[in-house]
Design goal:
Radius of gyration: 15 Å
Strand content: 25-35%
Shape: globular
Largest sheet: 6 strands, mixed
Number of strands: 11
Structural class: mainly beta
Number of helices: 2
Distance between the termini: 27 Å
Strand order of the largest sheet: 3-4-7-8-10-11
Length: 167
């Protein structure tokens, strides 16, 4: 599992993926089920999607992982992970399981807005399961995100990027 650095406003991180505020620490925790997975909390309330996409793009760009995935949870929400790889969402908000991108970032360099397309997301709510080993679930909402020149685009209705009712 990888730990992400201090919060950074979405537009700033997306406009410069190599900003000094974008800090990536590898091997923060050692859990084989979370290899090549980053995590984040307070996700939609603090609008952390942009920085998460930057971290994913940077890790791929820097060759630190062949595939990168993300588990992000809203406030008052958790993901219970069983040793066999099954996870269950608990709490009041959403959990977002971002899958490996369909391609590496097109543009991920200093002082240049990020372009990174085809990141799949599965958003789940309380009591909905997710198989971490297969990175799949038949529950929740599935959609795709892309960043083009620093702007996030979503396949959700209206271009929404979060599925939680509060965002």
């Amino acid at each position: 599992m990888l730990r992400m650095g201090p919060p950074s406003p979405r537009p700033k991180a997306l406009s410069n993926p190599f900003s000094p505020r974008v800090t990536i620490v590898h091997q923060f925790l050692d859990n084989p089920l979370l290899k090549e997975v980053i995590t984040d909390t307070h996700f939609s309330a603090r609008d952390r999607l942009g920085r998460t996409l930057v971290f994913m793009a940077r890790i791929l760009q820097d060759g630190k992982a062949r595939h990168i995935r993300d588990i992000a949870v809203d406030e008052r929400t958790g993901v219970l992970l069983e040793p066999g790889g099954m996870a269950t969402v608990i709490g009041a908000g959403s959990a977002y399981f971002s899958g490996k991108a369909t391609q590496n970032p097109e543009t991920c360099k200093a002082n240049t807005p990020l372009t990174f397309r085809g990141v799949t997301v599965r958003s789940l709510h309380a009591d909905e399961p997710f198989n971490v080993l297969q990175w799949s679930s038949s529950e929740g909402t599935s959609y795709t995100l892309s960043v083009e020149s620093g702007a996030i685009h979503s396949t959700l209705p209206g271009g929404a990027v979060y599925t939680n009712a509060t965002k």
